[in-house]
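Q: Given only this backbone (446 positions), what sequence would you predict?
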């Protein structure tokens, strides 16, 4: 969405399509983008093309949009009604249900078992099959950004959220059995980012300082890895994401660099088999660290980035993800400049990642511009800024409303005027037409 493109478009068209938010689905096969006019869903299963599989215009100014894997279920929240969550069956063009809360919705997370809604001081856990409210966690520590993470593995459905507003404590909650698992003292500063790996066995975290990223075992809470993103400046980490095999972890921020870390344990036997100068020096530093202050000692044990990406932007909101596309490891970066960048990742040697494709998110399929790395860069005009969750909280709130859920039919459409009171939700499961992608789960205990 570059400024020069708007010259050929009707007045105001580019502004109407301005990027507000973006999210990858649970297996990184789809990208969801919230815009001024609604939302868009893209397939990201190929490098050379970006297919827009759906464009929703049910509500404008979408600042939260989350798709459930590759199913037809999508959750949308609009700036015009920030206290209401809408659940759509986008392939049928129908609303499954909507739900209103006592305050602005800051984030939504979902897997095949649970749907979690995070407000500033409370968390709501729903059964995704019938949208029944199972648990409300009240008086949680102030969470201005709605920071939380939900394991995509629905067999455990671990939920992580800040356990403190002043230090980096993580509460890990079992959303299936509705009980707290553990508290992790992760950082000295408040949390800024959280992410589970696909199995829910590892949890990555970063603080508001953004200099150190840590990985913990779940549910034990034991520290497994510690990575140093940088030392010279504090940054705002905007996203953390594991690769599908949990061998790599990527982190993006408000700087021009995306870091990829490799999760590998260095065993003593490996060092003895291949003695090198770096191995020798590493042992010397390790021995010396026992005599140094704890802060210096910690820095000497922290691993650095295995691979990096240098973006042609600074200060823009972006999210990153690692995916295997066409049998090769890729790094995906969706930016508030309105573009999706795809990079090749060398899983053996790391280093600087190579840009192989750039897709614009606001062009039609016929007019889509795709650029290789060797092409000339775009001009330096500043792109539109994105709407942050924190800014959303500052918007005027809608009048308080009672918590209700619109009824829905087996066809997936809302039953007009049929309002079901809280705790008396429809007994029938949410019915989607692509059952192979979202198989029904019957009579499972939570």
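A: Predicted residues:
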């Amino acid at each position: 969405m570059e400024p020069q493109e708007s010259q050929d478009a009707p007045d105001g068209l580019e502004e109407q399509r301005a990027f507000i938010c973006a999210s990858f689905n649970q297996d990184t096969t789809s990208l969801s983008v919230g815009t001024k006019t609604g939302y868009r869903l893209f397939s990201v299963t190929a490098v050379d093309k970006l297919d827009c599989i759906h464009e929703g215009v049910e509500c404008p100014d979408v600042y939260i949009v989350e798709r459930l894997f590759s199913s037809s279920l999508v959750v949308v929240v609009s700036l015009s009604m920030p206290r209401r969550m809408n659940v759509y069956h986008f392939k049928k063009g129908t609303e499954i249900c909507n739900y209103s809360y006592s305050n602005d919705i800051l984030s939504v997370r979902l897997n095949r078992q649970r749907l979690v809604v995070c407000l500033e001081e409370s968390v709501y856990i729903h059964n995704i099959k019938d949208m029944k409210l199972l648990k409300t966690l009240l008086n949680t520590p102030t969470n201005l950004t709605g920071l939380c993470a939900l394991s995509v593995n629905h067999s455990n459905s671990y939920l992580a959220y800040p356990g403190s507003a002043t230090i980096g404590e993580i509460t890990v909650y079992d959303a299936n059995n509705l009980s707290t698992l553990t508290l992790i003292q992760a950082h000295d500063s408040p949390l800024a980012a959280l992410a589970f790996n696909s199995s829910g066995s590892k949890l990555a975290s970063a603080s508001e300082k953004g200099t150190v990223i840590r990985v913990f075992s779940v549910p034990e809470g034991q520290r497994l890895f510690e990575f140093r993103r940088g030392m010279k400046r504090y940054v705002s980490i905007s996203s953390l994401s594991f690769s599908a095999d949990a061998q790599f972890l990527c982190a993006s921020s408000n700087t021009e660099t995306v870091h990829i870390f490799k999760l590998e344990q260095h065993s003593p036997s490996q060092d003895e088999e291949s003695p090198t100068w770096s191995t020798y020096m590493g042992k010397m530093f390790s021995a010396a660290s026992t005599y140094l202050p704890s802060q210096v000692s910690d820095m000497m044990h922290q691993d650095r980035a295995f691979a990096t990406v240098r973006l042609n932007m600074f200060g823009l909101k972006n999210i990153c993800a690692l995916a295997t596309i066409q049998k090769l490891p890729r790094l995906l970066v969706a930016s508030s400049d309105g573009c999706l960048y795809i990079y090749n990742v060398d899983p053996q040697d790391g280093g600087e990642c190579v840009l192989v494709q750039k897709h614009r998110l606001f062009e039609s399929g016929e007019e889509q511009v795709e650029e290789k790395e060797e092409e000339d860069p775009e001009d330096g005009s500043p792109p539109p800024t994105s709407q942050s969750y924190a800014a959303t909280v500052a918007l005027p709130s809608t009048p308080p409303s009672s918590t209700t859920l619109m009824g829905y039919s087996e066809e997936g459409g809302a039953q007009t005027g049929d309002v079901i009171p809280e705790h008396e939700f429809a007994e029938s499961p949410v019915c989607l037409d692509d059952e192979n992608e979202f198989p029904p789960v019957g009579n499972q205990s939570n």
